[in-house]
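Internal ticket - ligand job 507, nicotinamide-adenine-dinucleotide:
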Amino acid sequence: MGSAATNISSATTITSINPATGEALGEVPVMTPEQVKAAVDAARAAQRDWAKLPIETRCRRVAKFADVLMSRAEETIDLLVREAGKTRLEALGMEVIITADLTRYFVKHAPEMLEPEPIPLHLMKHRASYLHFVPRGVVGVIAPWNFPFSIPLGETIMALIAGNGVVIKPSEVTPLIALKAKELYLAAELPPDLLQVVTGRGPTGAALIDSGIDYCVFTGSVATGKKVAVACGERLIPCTLELGGKAPAIVCGDADLERAAQAIVWGGFANSGQVCASVERVYAVDSIHDALVERVVKHAKEVRQGDASHSQDVDMGAMSWDQQVNNVEKLVDAAAGAGAKVETGGKRKPGAGMFFEPTVLSGCKQEMDVMRKEIFGPVIPIMRVQTEDEAVKLANDSHLGLLAYVFTRDRERGKRLAERIEAGTVMINDVLNTYGCPETPWGGVKQSGIGRTHSIIGLRDMCETRHVNYDRVALGREVWWYPYKEGTFRALLRGARLLFGKRPWQR
Ligand code: NAD
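stdout (structure tokens):
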């Protein structure tokens, strides 16, 4: 990823840039494969002692991270605003609070979630099984720039509580925030070497996968996700892939239009539209289409955009890097050229900052790139459909399937539609928010990724699930052991016929 946000003329450092002003914020090293390997080795050495601690002790120690984070929230927010172009409220709500809440949640529930779990055996009743959850070792967390704090830190907290060491490879666009996270971690008096941050670009991420990590959690684009999957596959390292999204919002004829319009505007523009779960396309049923467009445009025009460094009264900050502004501009221009109507916005703002106006497009068609490719910017394309069935069909006509949204006053209709949509999560009458619910799973279907993060599933994925099988009744021998005999064969067959002749519920 090369951009004005990074100093690509130097092979050894990256300059972090404030996207709202163009100001240089600081430099970080591009770490070599040798340095990355040393970081993994140091994390592994520290992990051996960490894994020996009872999980309750690990939880108690990790809890302190949330305390430090909340006590130093302002400085974390300041940096998120300056390095990622966020508004102060988004930096607080979507980064700091989400991370502190996730920490509290897993500190409280992980000991129970990682308790050994018995498996009742339905046939071999003289034996018993249980699962137990063993830390994997060192978890590599490769992160994007759009949520440079809450994404890597959420994975890190789960991995640490589960008994792992962690090496974070932050995005080259937002490396200083990851270094701030390490500073807070050290202030929480956690083992210094257990968490490492390796800065650099793509090759540093590739080096991390090649440095003997035991598990990789990758969040980023589909294109890089495929490379990561290949690299992990070659080394047989398990990985979770959290990739792109193209979330559809279906607005039914009976929807609360005011709620739907406000949700779509917030869901399309929050974090300047740079959310994998952003509302990226709207399918509005004919009967309410015009009224919905009118309300969405009205609310979009009220959005106040600007540099949030000095003001709380900004709804939308800068985009995080210049390449993203170019992508958005191309998609909007192509849609307008193909007949979409630019209801509001539609242009980048002149000046040094990386701003694209909050944009609403109507008259969009499914074949337009703006309806098919991930926009990752503040653009809400709207398409008129005749029926909800047509909307579901079009929603599913995508290679991505992370989040989807349905707006209806009829809860049961909402659930019926939700269950037909190919997405990891479908929200009814709301947008984005479940990323902030650590108890619910997060992840996509199709090319939006593999695996789930958050919830008991994400926590257990930070462990190897191992199985122990033991005898409940001491027997001298099993009947099917050597020597094989005709009598044993007949007895087994008779028994099996008796058992399997019955339906499972009759046994
Ligand atoms: P990206 O794929 O360009 O980069 C992600 C990370 O991968 C960066 O740290 C980068 O340096 C690293 N990387 C690049 N090449 C690599 C390689 N060969 N091996 C290992 N690591 C490598 O993505 P981005 O532009 O930073 O992030 C935006 C994308 O992330 C969007 O598509 C968005 O939808 C997606 N995203 C998904 C989720 C989710 O939960 N599913 C969340 C946030 C963002």
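Auto-summary: The CA atoms of residues 233 and 239 lie 9 Å apart. The longest strand covers residues 127-135.
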